[in-house]
Amino acid sequence: MNDSLLRLTLARDTESYDYMDRDSARHEHDGSRAEDNVESARATMRKILESAEYVSERTAHLSINVSEGIKATETLAAVARQLRTLSSNTSLEASRLNGNATVAEIARQMRLLSQHVTALSEHLASGLRAQGIALGEMSAAIDSVLVDAASTQASLEQSSEYLYSDHALLRGLLQAVPSAPLTSEVATDGE
Amino acid sequence: MQERVPALVFTVHGRLYGLLQDGGASLLPWLRRYDTPGPVPGVPSWTLGLLSVQGTVQAIADLGAFLGHGTTIPAEDSRLVFVEAGDLRVGLLVDAVSGIRYFDSIEYAVFSEAEPYVAGHSAIHGQQIRILDGVNLLQAMARALGSPLAGRA
Amino acid sequence: MSVMSPPIAVTRKSTARVRPWTLRVKLTAALAVTGLVPSLLIIYLGHITWWALVPAVAITLFFTVSLSHYVMTPILKLRATAERVQAGDFRARSNIDLHDEIGDIACAFDAVTEHALTLINELESQRLELENGIIQLFTELSQAANGDLTVRPTTSEGSLGAVADSISVLLRRFCAIVRDIQATAREVSAGSLQVAGTVQRVSHEADKQAKALEKSAKGISDLSASASSVSQRTQSAMTVSARALDAVRSGHDAVAGAHKTMDAIRDTTRRATRKVKGLGESAQLMSQALSLVQRNTEELQIMAGNASIEAARHADSGGGVFRSVADGIESLAEQSQLALRQIQEVIARNQRETVGVVEAIEDVTIQVVAGGRAVQHAAEAFEVVDSVVHELADLNVFIASASSEQARKAAELAAMMGTLNGISLETSRTTAASADSAVRLRELTDQLNSSVATLKVS
Predict the structure, then answer these.
(1) Are A178 and C230 an interchain contact pair (Cβ–Cβ within 8 Å)?
(2) What superfamily would CATH give domain C182-453?
(3) Which of C107, C94, C118 is closest to C11 using CA atoms?
């Protein structure tokens, strides 16, 4: 009988345990990396949510402003209409005053101005309306972003939970599986 | 009942001034935005230059600078107010024009060295208005330029 | 050498014995008289009476007693003599001089006794001779008994000489045997010493082996239990790894879903950015339009001013028209101005807000890009984790099956070790017993050696 240690190795292939050690280390490393990435993505999503909410809020303000602007353009349009009326009246007065050139000139300029103001107020109003529509679409887009961001956040949280669960499960698994092949050492009284 | 007195009210360096329509010097219906006049060499700094108005060439002066308030910097609301007194005609640069106002009364004041061209005072909506002596003003400008201001084409 | 003398015939003290009256005759006569007298008496008397019976009886008694005395006395004497002889006194004689059978018996007895005495005397002399020879032999043998096996008894004539010869031969052979024994004892001693040493070593080694096997058996037993436990644990670990796989896959799907929604967010953000840019552009256009309106309003104001001046100039004639026109224009100009201010405020506010929104959307865009990248990385990491978990699961399956195999083999090994352990213990015990036996053999050999060492054989 050999006086050295008597080793009974029952595993046929110790490589599997080496692979398991290596894979468990890899899993720790990759799992940490995945966790970090997921956490980074979640942090980013939080920022996105905050920014999107801010945008949504501002967009709502913008829409209110645009509504007020449209009301103001209506005022302008009313001014232009009144100016046209005044112009007409002034023309009448000019004719009553035997074609007073100055009055007629004033009436002409008022008419021109009225046309200009009408056109411009219409232009402003359409511009503001277009802004309102764009803001509405943007608001819808931002709402969509909020929904998507919330969904993404939920997905990431879920993935984080799954990752955590996976870690816990694999930790339990690695504790259950022996870390090395079973060995038995019997020492005999040696030389 | 005393007739109300019309005067063109305008702002120069934050102060309200008025020029009477019938105060010796008369206002011309040439009220317009400020346009940069063609410069004239060898004239006082308050003389801004010459401008073609209504087919005539008119002298343009900085009223604020002439009154001693400093150089007026033209802005969006800046206007040229044309005043004529006899042969004298000038376009005065002012900061803003409020329009013709009809005053119930004007308190004419004695001559003041501090404000030599202010003929009197009035008030509108609680705000004091200095009523300028248009004739005196134009004559002083003409004397300062050393030649009568070109008034007719 | 003397030999036993042949049996001697019985010799009589007297040469010829006359036996006129044998015992038979005497007894017959006595009985006849004994019987006849009463009979005669009875016959004489013709009946039995007491006074006839008494003398009959007396006579009968007398003859009986006399007869018995006559017969018994020599017998008793002979008996006494026999008892003396029996006691060892062979010189005792019965000296019964009767001429009957009893006398014959007595003579024969005396002759026998005499012969016996003679024989005894012969024997005694032979004995003495023999005793001397024996003493001598004994003396010589005592030397041998003391260990000097080289001594040879003195041979002499006779049986003792033969004995001495035989003893000499015996001693010679004994010497040879003792020499052989000594030699063998030495060899056995050496051998038994060696054997004892070897057996002791073997025993020691057997003990060690037994202990080692015991430990191994215990180790294997523990190993078997561990392997079974591991096998069970790896079996449950397989379930766990399946769940871990599901978790990873679900996490991967979640990340993929997040990736998709991130893409959607990115597209939406781009659209929102375009819209905001459009807002900015339209605001720019509106500002330009507003400037024009502003200019027109100013023109209105100037117009109003000039109309007022005209009105003041022509206060007396037609000035009313100018005044109403001037008032109307001024009012409109004021309203227009107000509306413009409002619109300007709106546009300014919108521009401010839009700048903030643009900045926020730019932030969102940057964050979306970063988030998309992070989600992509997470997805990639999940891919890697998935592959690792797959590998782990596969490894676990392999280890589970290996563990089952190990558990089975460990159990077999444990059983085998138990058997080996038993055998080893038995071997150890047997070896110990052999060692004891070897020691005992050595002790015996030593004893033998010490015993034969005292013998002188050369």
Answers:
(1) yes
(2) Methyl-accepting chemotaxis protein (1.10.287.950)
(3) C107
